[in-house]
Design a protein that fits this description.
alpha/beta, 12 strands, 7 helices, 22% strand, 25% helix, two-stranded antiparallel sheet, Spore Coat Polysaccharide Biosynthesis Protein SpsA, Chain A, ten-stranded mixed β-sheet, single chain
Protein backbone atom coordinates (compact mmCIF):
# COMPACT_ATOMS: atom_id res chain seq x y z
CA UNK A 1 0.00 0.00 0.00
CA UNK A 2 1.34 3.41 -0.91
CA UNK A 3 1.27 6.59 1.12
CA UNK A 4 -2.36 7.66 1.51
CA UNK A 5 -3.63 11.14 2.32
CA UNK A 6 -7.14 12.19 3.31
CA UNK A 7 -7.81 14.01 0.04
CA UNK A 8 -7.07 10.86 -1.96
CA UNK A 9 -9.66 8.63 -0.25
CA UNK A 10 -12.68 7.43 -2.23
CA UNK A 11 -15.65 6.49 -0.06
CA UNK A 12 -17.09 3.01 -0.53
CA UNK A 13 -19.97 0.96 0.83
CA UNK A 14 -17.73 -1.73 2.32
CA UNK A 15 -17.86 -2.61 6.01
CA UNK A 16 -14.26 -1.74 6.74
CA UNK A 17 -13.46 -1.72 10.44
CA UNK A 18 -11.30 1.31 11.16
CA UNK A 19 -9.04 2.16 14.07
CA UNK A 20 -8.98 5.93 14.63
CA UNK A 21 -6.00 7.08 16.72
CA UNK A 22 -6.05 10.54 18.26
CA UNK A 23 -2.40 11.61 18.14
CA UNK A 24 -2.57 15.40 17.86
CA UNK A 25 -2.31 16.19 21.57
CA UNK A 26 0.28 18.58 22.95
CA UNK A 27 1.14 16.60 26.14
CA UNK A 28 1.10 19.62 28.46
CA UNK A 29 1.17 17.59 31.71
CA UNK A 30 3.68 15.13 30.25
CA UNK A 31 6.00 17.87 29.05
CA UNK A 32 6.23 16.90 25.37
CA UNK A 33 4.88 14.78 22.54
CA UNK A 34 4.38 11.54 24.46
CA UNK A 35 2.80 9.93 21.41
CA UNK A 36 6.27 10.04 19.81
CA UNK A 37 8.22 8.51 22.72
CA UNK A 38 9.44 4.92 22.55
CA UNK A 39 8.10 2.37 25.05
CA UNK A 40 9.03 -0.97 23.51
CA UNK A 41 12.48 -2.62 23.42
CA UNK A 42 13.05 -1.26 19.91
CA UNK A 43 11.60 2.18 20.69
CA UNK A 44 8.11 1.11 19.57
CA UNK A 45 5.50 3.79 20.22
CA UNK A 46 2.72 2.89 22.63
CA UNK A 47 0.17 3.25 19.83
CA UNK A 48 1.99 0.59 17.80
CA UNK A 49 0.84 -2.04 20.28
CA UNK A 50 -2.70 -0.79 19.71
CA UNK A 51 -2.25 -1.14 15.95
CA UNK A 52 -0.89 -4.66 16.43
CA UNK A 53 -3.89 -5.62 18.57
CA UNK A 54 -6.37 -4.06 16.13
CA UNK A 55 -4.86 -6.01 13.22
CA UNK A 56 -5.10 -9.21 15.27
CA UNK A 57 -8.78 -8.40 15.94
CA UNK A 58 -9.59 -7.96 12.25
CA UNK A 59 -9.38 -4.20 11.72
CA UNK A 60 -8.15 -3.34 8.25
CA UNK A 61 -7.70 0.43 8.25
CA UNK A 62 -5.96 2.86 10.60
CA UNK A 63 -6.56 6.63 10.56
CA UNK A 64 -4.20 8.88 12.49
CA UNK A 65 -5.29 12.33 13.64
CA UNK A 66 -2.09 14.36 13.83
CA UNK A 67 -0.96 17.95 13.53
CA UNK A 68 0.85 19.20 10.47
CA UNK A 69 3.73 20.50 12.57
CA UNK A 70 5.03 16.96 13.27
CA UNK A 71 3.42 15.16 10.35
CA UNK A 72 6.60 14.16 8.52
CA UNK A 73 8.38 12.95 11.67
CA UNK A 74 5.32 10.90 12.60
CA UNK A 75 5.07 9.20 9.20
CA UNK A 76 8.78 8.46 9.19
CA UNK A 77 8.36 6.41 12.38
CA UNK A 78 5.08 4.70 11.47
CA UNK A 79 4.62 4.27 7.77
CA UNK A 80 7.19 1.80 6.46
CA UNK A 81 6.74 -0.44 9.48
CA UNK A 82 2.95 -0.80 9.09
CA UNK A 83 2.03 -0.07 5.45
CA UNK A 84 2.04 -3.75 4.47
CA UNK A 85 -0.16 -4.83 7.39
CA UNK A 86 -3.00 -2.31 7.45
CA UNK A 87 -4.21 0.59 5.32
CA UNK A 88 -2.84 3.85 6.73
CA UNK A 89 -4.46 7.27 6.44
CA UNK A 90 -3.22 10.55 7.92
CA UNK A 91 -5.48 13.49 8.76
CA UNK A 92 -4.38 16.85 10.16
CA UNK A 93 -6.29 18.31 13.08
CA UNK A 94 -5.98 22.07 12.87
CA UNK A 95 -7.85 24.74 14.80
CA UNK A 96 -8.79 26.37 11.49
CA UNK A 97 -10.84 23.33 10.40
CA UNK A 98 -14.36 24.48 11.26
CA UNK A 99 -17.90 23.74 10.06
CA UNK A 100 -19.10 25.80 7.11
CA UNK A 101 -20.17 29.26 8.24
CA UNK A 102 -18.53 28.98 11.68
CA UNK A 103 -16.06 31.57 12.91
CA UNK A 104 -14.07 32.21 16.07
CA UNK A 105 -13.05 35.42 17.79
CA UNK A 106 -9.43 34.51 18.62
CA UNK A 107 -6.51 32.42 17.43
CA UNK A 108 -5.65 29.54 19.71
CA UNK A 109 -2.80 27.02 19.47
CA UNK A 110 -4.53 24.21 21.33
CA UNK A 111 -6.79 21.82 19.36
CA UNK A 112 -10.53 21.97 20.04
CA UNK A 113 -10.72 18.63 21.88
CA UNK A 114 -11.52 14.99 21.16
CA UNK A 115 -14.91 15.77 19.59
CA UNK A 116 -13.19 17.93 17.00
CA UNK A 117 -10.36 15.43 16.49
CA UNK A 118 -12.82 12.68 15.54
CA UNK A 119 -14.83 15.11 13.37
CA UNK A 120 -11.62 15.87 11.43
CA UNK A 121 -11.81 12.32 9.99
CA UNK A 122 -15.22 12.92 8.39
CA UNK A 123 -13.91 12.61 4.81
CA UNK A 124 -12.03 9.33 5.29
CA UNK A 125 -14.36 7.13 7.36
CA UNK A 126 -17.75 5.90 6.19
CA UNK A 127 -18.27 2.82 8.33
CA UNK A 128 -17.78 1.53 11.90
CA UNK A 129 -14.70 2.71 13.72
CA UNK A 130 -13.04 2.55 17.12
CA UNK A 131 -11.42 5.69 18.47
CA UNK A 132 -8.55 5.57 20.96
CA UNK A 133 -5.88 7.84 22.42
CA UNK A 134 -2.37 7.40 21.06
CA UNK A 135 -0.85 7.45 24.53
CA UNK A 136 -3.05 4.77 26.13
CA UNK A 137 -2.75 0.98 26.14
CA UNK A 138 -6.14 -0.76 25.99
CA UNK A 139 -5.36 -4.49 25.69
CA UNK A 140 -6.22 -6.92 22.90
CA UNK A 141 -9.48 -8.18 24.47
CA UNK A 142 -10.92 -4.68 24.02
CA UNK A 143 -10.30 -4.75 20.27
CA UNK A 144 -11.75 -8.24 19.99
CA UNK A 145 -14.88 -7.09 21.85
CA UNK A 146 -15.16 -4.01 19.65
CA UNK A 147 -14.90 -6.09 16.48
CA UNK A 148 -17.55 -8.49 17.77
CA UNK A 149 -19.81 -5.57 18.67
CA UNK A 150 -19.67 -4.29 15.10
CA UNK A 151 -20.31 -7.78 13.70
CA UNK A 152 -23.40 -8.23 15.89
CA UNK A 153 -24.81 -4.69 15.85
CA UNK A 154 -25.72 -2.50 12.88
CA UNK A 155 -26.47 0.91 14.36
CA UNK A 156 -25.61 1.45 18.03
CA UNK A 157 -22.50 2.96 19.57
CA UNK A 158 -20.54 1.52 22.50
CA UNK A 159 -18.05 2.59 25.12
CA UNK A 160 -15.32 0.19 26.25
CA UNK A 161 -15.23 0.86 29.99
CA UNK A 162 -12.44 0.14 32.48
CA UNK A 163 -12.41 -0.18 36.25
CA UNK A 164 -11.38 3.18 37.62
CA UNK A 165 -8.87 2.13 40.29
CA UNK A 166 -6.12 0.77 38.00
CA UNK A 167 -6.37 3.83 35.75
CA UNK A 168 -5.30 6.27 38.47
CA UNK A 169 -1.78 7.67 38.53
CA UNK A 170 0.62 7.70 41.48
CA UNK A 171 2.10 10.92 40.14
CA UNK A 172 -0.86 13.30 40.04
CA UNK A 173 -4.56 13.74 39.44
CA UNK A 174 -6.37 12.48 36.34
CA UNK A 175 -9.61 13.21 34.50
CA UNK A 176 -12.00 10.37 33.66
CA UNK A 177 -15.42 10.02 32.05
CA UNK A 178 -17.51 8.21 34.68
CA UNK A 179 -20.08 5.94 33.00
CA UNK A 180 -23.67 5.46 34.14
CA UNK A 181 -25.79 2.67 32.66
CA UNK A 182 -29.36 1.43 33.00
CA UNK A 183 -30.39 -2.12 33.87
CA UNK A 184 -30.05 -3.24 30.24
CA UNK A 185 -26.46 -2.06 29.95
CA UNK A 186 -27.23 1.04 27.90
CA UNK A 187 -25.22 4.16 28.69
CA UNK A 188 -27.37 6.89 30.23
CA UNK A 189 -24.66 9.52 30.66
CA UNK A 190 -20.94 10.15 30.98
CA UNK A 191 -19.83 12.74 33.51
CA UNK A 192 -16.39 14.21 32.86
CA UNK A 193 -14.89 14.07 36.35
CA UNK A 194 -11.69 16.01 36.92
CA UNK A 195 -8.75 15.95 39.30
CA UNK A 196 -9.40 12.42 40.53
CA UNK A 197 -6.96 11.17 43.16
CA UNK A 198 -6.61 8.64 45.98
CA UNK A 199 -6.98 10.06 49.49
CA UNK A 200 -4.82 8.99 52.47
CA UNK A 201 -7.57 6.65 53.68
CA UNK A 202 -7.62 4.86 50.32
CA UNK A 203 -10.88 6.39 49.08
CA UNK A 204 -11.11 8.01 45.66
CA UNK A 205 -11.78 11.74 45.61
CA UNK A 206 -12.28 14.36 42.91
CA UNK A 207 -12.61 18.15 42.65
CA UNK A 208 -14.86 18.69 39.61
CA UNK A 209 -17.75 18.76 39.04
CA UNK A 210 -18.25 20.22 42.52
CA UNK A 211 -21.19 18.87 44.55
CA UNK A 212 -22.07 16.34 41.85
CA UNK A 213 -22.64 13.60 44.41
CA UNK A 214 -20.70 11.01 42.44
CA UNK A 215 -19.39 8.15 44.57
CA UNK A 216 -16.20 6.75 43.09
CA UNK A 217 -14.97 3.25 43.89
CA UNK A 218 -12.11 1.15 42.59
CA UNK A 219 -14.50 -0.84 40.37
CA UNK A 220 -16.47 2.17 39.06
CA UNK A 221 -16.55 1.94 35.27
CA UNK A 222 -14.85 4.79 33.46
CA UNK A 223 -14.37 5.73 29.84
CA UNK A 224 -10.76 5.90 28.72
CA UNK A 225 -11.73 7.36 25.32
CA UNK A 226 -12.23 4.03 23.58
CA UNK A 227 -15.53 4.26 21.74
CA UNK A 228 -17.20 2.19 19.03
CA UNK A 229 -18.67 4.80 16.68
CA UNK A 230 -20.17 5.05 13.21
CA UNK A 231 -20.24 7.53 10.33
CA UNK A 232 -23.39 9.10 11.80
CA UNK A 233 -21.06 10.70 14.35
CA UNK A 234 -19.91 13.21 11.75
CA UNK A 235 -23.41 14.53 11.13
CA UNK A 236 -24.11 14.93 14.85
CA UNK A 237 -20.62 16.36 15.34
CA UNK A 238 -21.07 19.07 12.73
CA UNK A 239 -24.26 20.30 14.37
CA UNK A 240 -22.91 20.26 17.91
CA UNK A 241 -19.49 21.67 17.10
CA UNK A 242 -21.18 24.60 15.37
CA UNK A 243 -23.27 25.22 18.50
CA UNK A 244 -20.16 24.92 20.65
CA UNK A 245 -18.44 27.62 18.58
CA UNK A 246 -21.45 29.92 18.81
CA UNK A 247 -20.50 30.51 22.44
CA UNK A 248 -17.48 32.81 22.40
CA UNK A 249 -16.65 31.74 25.95
CA UNK A 250 -15.40 28.45 24.43
CA UNK A 251 -13.00 30.07 21.99
CA UNK A 252 -9.97 30.43 24.26
CA UNK A 253 -9.85 27.19 26.29
CA UNK A 254 -13.13 25.34 25.75
CA UNK A 255 -13.02 21.70 24.65
CA UNK A 256 -15.53 19.97 22.41
CA UNK A 257 -15.54 16.35 23.63
CA UNK A 258 -16.80 13.07 22.17
CA UNK A 259 -19.14 12.38 25.14
CA UNK A 260 -21.01 15.59 24.24
CA UNK A 261 -21.92 14.08 20.89
CA UNK A 262 -22.91 10.76 22.46
CA UNK A 263 -25.00 12.47 25.15
CA UNK A 264 -26.82 14.41 22.42
CA UNK A 265 -27.62 11.21 20.53
CA UNK A 266 -28.82 9.45 23.69
CA UNK A 267 -30.92 12.35 24.97
CA UNK A 268 -32.62 12.81 21.61
CA UNK A 269 -33.35 9.08 21.17
CA UNK A 270 -31.20 8.93 18.05
CA UNK A 271 -29.39 5.76 19.10
CA UNK A 272 -28.33 3.61 22.04
CA UNK A 273 -24.81 3.33 23.39
CA UNK A 274 -23.82 0.07 25.05
CA UNK A 275 -21.44 -0.08 28.00
CA UNK A 276 -18.98 -2.92 27.39
CA UNK A 277 -16.79 -3.98 30.28
CA UNK A 278 -13.43 -4.25 28.59
CA UNK A 279 -12.07 -6.80 31.07
CA UNK A 280 -8.64 -5.57 29.96
CA UNK A 281 -5.77 -3.97 31.80
CA UNK A 282 -5.32 -0.32 30.86
CA UNK A 283 -2.23 1.79 31.34
CA UNK A 284 -1.16 5.15 29.99
CA UNK A 285 1.21 8.07 30.38
CA UNK A 286 -0.37 11.19 31.79
CA UNK A 287 2.85 12.30 33.48
CA UNK A 288 6.51 11.80 32.57
CA UNK A 289 6.90 9.71 35.71
CA UNK A 290 4.35 7.22 34.30
CA UNK A 291 6.75 6.34 31.50
CA UNK A 292 8.85 3.82 33.42
CA UNK A 293 5.81 1.86 34.60
CA UNK A 294 4.44 1.70 31.05
CA UNK A 295 7.76 0.37 29.76
CA UNK A 296 7.82 -2.27 32.48
CA UNK A 297 4.31 -3.40 31.61
CA UNK A 298 5.24 -3.73 27.94
CA UNK A 299 8.29 -5.79 28.94
CA UNK A 300 6.08 -8.12 30.98
CA UNK A 301 3.62 -8.57 28.10
CA UNK A 302 6.51 -9.49 25.81
CA UNK A 303 7.87 -11.92 28.41
CA UNK A 304 4.40 -13.49 28.68
CA UNK A 305 4.33 -14.01 24.89
CA UNK A 306 1.55 -11.52 24.16
CA UNK A 307 3.81 -9.54 21.81
CA UNK A 308 6.97 -10.42 19.87
CA UNK A 309 10.27 -8.92 20.95
CA UNK A 310 10.06 -6.68 17.90
CA UNK A 311 6.77 -5.59 16.33
CA UNK A 312 8.60 -5.57 13.01
CA UNK A 313 8.47 -9.37 13.24
CA UNK A 314 4.65 -9.48 13.29
CA UNK A 315 2.85 -10.94 10.24
CA UNK A 316 2.17 -8.82 7.17
CA UNK A 317 -1.08 -8.81 5.23
Amino acid sequence: MGLIFAEDIQKTDTMTKTLLILAAGMGSRYGGLKQMDGFGPNEELLMEYSIYDAVEAGFDKCVFIIRESFSEAFKEVIHNKWKDRIELVYVHQETSDLPEGASVSIERPKPWGTGHAVWAARDVIDGPFVMINADDFYGRPSYLRAARFFDENESDYAVLAYQLGPTLSEHGTVNRGICFADETGNLTKIIETKKIDTAEDGSIVYEEPADAGIVLKMDTLASMNMFCLRASYFEYGTELFSKFLDDEANHEKGEFLVPSVIDHAINNDLLQTKVIDSESSWFGVTYKADQEDAKNQIEKLIADGVYPQSLADSPKV
